[in-house]
Design brief:
CATH architecture of the largest domain: 3-Layer(aba) Sandwich
Structural class: alpha/beta
Helix content: 25-40%
Mean pLDDT: 85
Strand order of the largest sheet: 3-4-6-5
Organism: Salmonella enterica I
GO molecular function: spermidine synthase activity
CATH superfamily of the largest domain: Vaccinia Virus protein VP39
Distance between the termini: 42 Å
Number of domains: 2
GO biological process, one term: spermidine biosynthetic process
Family: Belongs to the spermidine/spermine synthase family.
Protein name: Spermidine synthase
Number of helices: 6
CATH class of the largest domain: Alpha Beta
């Protein structure tokens, strides 16, 4: 999160369950946060994410759930209760994005997330990104959108461009 270089963001609200994580990052990882904790547009809330989205009256254009894996303490951030709360907190046209594990190590996570997210978002999808510092190196991310968007230009250009012998 580097807010100083982003001019069109009005506010960012970060919800973190453990104040110690923030203190550690401020002290030992100052290059990673680049002063964003001190940006006047930044608000830090120390709370459980599920509790926050189910109690707040705030709404957001984008909600990014950058949490641990869907096991153990982070499991609650992969539940229907959390997804429902996130949907409620999104402005019209807003989008929800969540870390969804390493697909070849956690093969059922994307299916489970898709099933749950589809109850709250009319358009659900996944994408992958290279995250070399994470075990497995390729992370999967889920997104949910309250409205169907038209296909992207890239998708339109390449749909049907690839053919396979077997469907």
């Amino acid at each position: 999160m580097k807010l100083p270089g982003i001019k069109n963001v009005e506010t960012i609200t970060m919800v973190e369950i453990d104040a110690g994580v923030v203190s550690f990052c401020r002290q030992y990882l100052p290059n990673h946060n680049a002063g964003s904790y001190d940006d006047p547009r930044f608000t830090l809330v120390i709370d459980d994410g599920v509790n926050f989205v189910n109690q707040t009256h705030q709404t957001f254009d984008v909600i990014i759930s950058d949490c641990t894996d869907p096991i153990g303490p982070g499991e609650s951030l992969f539940t229907s209760a959390f997804y429902e709360g996130c949907k409620r907190c999104l402005n019209p046209g807003g989008i929800f994005v969540a870390q969804n594990g390493v697909c070849f190590l956690q093969q059922d996570e994307a299916l489970d997330s898709h099933r749950k997210l589809s109850h709250y978002f009319s358009d659900v999808g996944f994408y992958q990104a290279a995250i070399p510092t994470y075990y497995g190196g390729i992370m999967t991310f889920a997104w949910g959108d309250g409205q169907r968007r038209s296909s992207s230009p890239v998708e339109r250009n390449y749909s049907g461009a690839f053919s396979c012998r077997w469907p």
